[in-house]
Amino acid sequence: MVSVMNKVADPDGAADLYPSRNAGKPSVIGRADPAVYTDPEDASPGPLTRRQLLDYENQGFLVLDAFFGPDDVRALQEELNRLWAGAADSGEETVIREPDSEVVRSIFAVHEGNAMFRQLARDRRLIALAEQLLGSRVYIHQSRVNYKSGFAGKEFYWHSDFETWHVEDGMPRMRAVSFSIALSQNTPANGPLMLIPGSHKHYVACPGETPEDHHKMSLRRQEYGVPDRASLAWLAEQGGGISVSTGAPGTLTLFECNTMHGSNSNISPNPRSNVFLVYNSVENALTAPFGGMKPRPGYIASRDFTALSPLNGP
Ligand code: 6CS
Ligand code: FE
Asked: To which CATH superfamily is domain 4-9+28-41+50-284 assigned?
């Protein structure tokens, strides 16, 4: 099943270790990067314990319950609701609507357009976590609020974020991490994040070509850059199944940029709202898209690589 593709040079001449969407058939490529860029045996302690670092390296994700307290959660939920109300009739490109309705699905670049989420992205604890995992200073590659409304919130089909960020944004290596902060109850019934343990160790090269201005469709319903069913079945078998990230508001789920994940449609009455912050290493700054297309807009893939300094806390 696993076949290693030839390495293909990218537009800048550096070897493309992770070619995808450039051949008819799908394939699974071995990962060439660590998940944790600091040595778990390193004596200088960081927010994550040696055990947690080893679990993240092996699983490709970690779930930290009650990471944010009730006061923080309430403030973020009120801000989320304010953003939602303001987006209803908005024509902003950062507002993404469901594929078959005008219901708001996501709002991108909240770390730039909103003071509270800008501060959240610079939370000292989050930056310390990202720097420990990525072994360097970090910046925000992408932020978004996903609403997954009751009854109307549609699925996010299985995908590796890195596959898209590599092909369409020019992210060279696997040295980024997504932080998903639950701002509603995430239950088995309202379309929670599903992850395949260990899937980050394999890179699934996807079939097909990337359409022009793909993001105008993919952020509503992604149909390119999605793995084939045989590769997905193989990953799930290798990983021992599928994990579901549930938890109360304030739960923090950290998942590696290449961890295969997705979520089902929400047919429950209750929304599944999360804010996502993607931290990339400043040593992994975007280059030209490896797929050869023009770069996606900055509200989806930031090209401000300035290292973040923490804003709050001791
Ligand atoms: O294309 C992207 O960058 C976005 N698409 C998905 C399904 N996950 C990552 C990100 O939000
Ligand atoms: Fe994703």
From this structure: q2cbj1_9rhob like domain (2.60.120.620)
